[in-house]
Hints:
The chain is α/β, with parallel strands linked by helices. 31% of the residues lie in helices and 22% in strands. Strands 8-7-6-9-10-11 form a six-stranded parallel beta sheet, with helices on both faces. A five-stranded antiparallel beta sheet has the order 3-2-1-5-4. Helix 3 crosses helix 7 and helix 4 (186-201) crosses helix 5. The protein starts with a helix and ends in a 12-residue tail after the last helix.
Amino acid sequence: MEWLKAVQRLREQRVPGVLVTLTSVRGHSPREAGAKMVVSADHTWATVGGGNLEAVAIERARAMLTEDRAVPETLKVSLSDKAPYQHGVQCCGGEVELLLEPLPVVPSVAIFGMGHVGLELARILARHDLELHLVDSRSAQLEPEQLRGLDDAVAGIHVHQVPVLPELVIGELPEGTHVLVMTHDHAEDAALCDAALRTFTTGDGHLASIGLIGSSAKWSRFRAKLADEGHTPEAIARITTPIGLPDLGGKEPATIAVSVAARLLQIFAGEPAATEQQSR
């Protein structure tokens, strides 16, 4: 189906769109109920009937994209030569109703380090509609047996096995990715933080957020190291640590994972943090 391939293509390319479905027909219509088309800002796929009907649907769909609408809308169009028209007369004699459903760009999250916390976090995030990138320099951590709990994931799972220089994955991540640094090696963590910050200094700046797991002592060392690498205090402040909900304590991996996932869901919903992170 052309429309289904278009939905998949838009998701893969991280381009928003609108799915238009002809939900009901009274009288005569150029297409039957169930016909679909997909609309992006500069392209359309498939058809719901052409003419004024389709032009009105495309116009409204693109207005929804411009307005960043997240809620589906219904649209009634009369196919009569006596009805008002905007893009030419269409006198089939019927009336149709269309459902316009936004196809937003889903969140993207990259977990660097698939240890105890990383795996628990992946299990939680995999239950949500997002793109989930799993990165580890230890190949054993990304074996199918290790990731079996993600077999029925709702999320799109992308596994990156990088035994050398995992920080190179930073530049390959989609625009707007939320990066979480929690590897087994503090030196690796530091290299990842450096690489993430450099996407801003080079003008790339495609990451939505950078989070680092660890203690205040670790962060003090990292701040000094990042400053020595040439990062300004303003740049270093882009890194959030500790991560998760500040008022949810506990050091068990599952507890930390719940806290971090909950904070990410707040961010996806556009909710501000409850309090400013103390380490900033």
